Amino acid sequence: MNQEQVLAFRLWRQALVKDERWCILINADPDALASALALKRIMHPRTRSVDIMRINEVTRPDNLAMVRYLRIPVKPWQPERAPAYDHFAMVDSQPAHHPAFAGLIYSLIIDHHPLTDLTGLLAPDAFCDIRTDVGATSSMMTRLLQALRLTPGPLLATALLYGIRTDTGAFERSGGEEDLRAYQWLSHHADANLLRRISRSEYLRAWLPFFSRAFRSLTDCRGGGAYAALGEIKSADLLVSVADFFTRVHGLKWIAVSGIVGKTGIVIFRGDGSRDIGRFADACFYDVGTAGGHRNMGRAEFPLAAVPDGVKPADFVLRRLMTRKVRPRCHAPIPLPATMATSGAAGHAQA
After folding, report:
1. What is the layout of strands, in order, in the sheet containing 264-271?
2. Which residues have C-beta within 8 Å of that of residue 208, sequence separation ≥ 6?
3. pLDDT given for residue 220 in this prediction
4. The predicted structure's pLDDT at residue 329
5. What is the pLDDT of residue 268?
6. Are 277 and 298 in contact (CB under 8 A)?
């Protein structure tokens, strides 16, 4: 973030009106939650109220732990409450990213995703900073805190630190100098014990029987892979956690874990990088649903109506895993957004 952007933000902050009510609207994930908390800290002394509202459910165990331990005051968004606010802000997302963001005019947008069309969506005096050279919006918010000489308390610093860690994949997936500088600075202010507690909150107790089901159903597949079927589940987040668990098994090159949510079959793929798992997911299910992903992770969804009569969904998935061939690269799938590749519900990187 250059000096011009910092100056523009300072001027924007100075123009805030004390009697106005603000709503920070987010698609809740760690980066969005942390960024919203930082913006609330920056705006709070200069406005009447600043509420953080989420358009999605927070379901992942680590994110639930983040909200709980760091006391993030986030509430579910109710569109009928829009008239109660004078201004809307958005962090770690853009209006085009979700239908729930539509119909509002935004007075601030700070994001690190590719720019979308903002025509007619910004207030005349809006502050807008969208950068793709940063790994996390939390890093951008940290830079603003530094520029305003605002020292974050332990809870806010821990939130921003966790936001950077998750969005950059602990700097294995993305992240640059600004992310690294922000991470180092925040480390001096964060609560290391709370950060460990959040990071280790990987599973819900109610999920444990499904892990047992995964072990019992585990079937070897071609190419050093394996498949586990969980049957009917409430959330695809469970599939993600089970699949991630199996990536720690030595010698297992890839894993596919399936489940049924409502009338939809969902398969989460994980791999060690020895094969393009996103292309493999596409090969297995492109003709019956949506599928794709990245080299190490993928996801497929298909309606249960696509399963032939008399065939169990688990057997339907297994047969495709064992027989389908990867399509030529000219037909390679478009990678799924991080949301779909990593979790089950709406939301960037999912909450």
Report:
1. 219-221, 225-232, 254-261, 264-271, 297-303, 290-293
2. none
3. 95
4. 62
5. 96
6. yes
Query: Which of 236, 209, 182, 194 has its CA nearest to residue 346?
Result: 236
- In the chain, count of helices (H) and strands (E)? 12, 12
The C-alpha angle with vertex 44 and arms to 43 and 49, in degrees rounded to 5, equals 110
Structure tokens given for 104: 């509002």
Distance CA 135, CA 223 (A): 33
pTM of this prediction?
Answer: 0.72
Whether 93 and 53 have beta carbons less than 8 Å apart is answered as no
- Asked if 144 and 1 touch (Cβ cutoff 8 Å), the reply is yes
Show Cβ contacts of residue 304 under 8 Å, excluding neighbours closer than 6 positions: 260, 263, 264, 265, 313
Is the per-residue pLDDT at 190 higher than 90? yes
Mind listing the pLDDT tens digit for each residue in 236-266?
A: 888 988 998 999 898 899 999 999 999 999 9
The Cα–Cα gap between 88 and 36 comes to 12
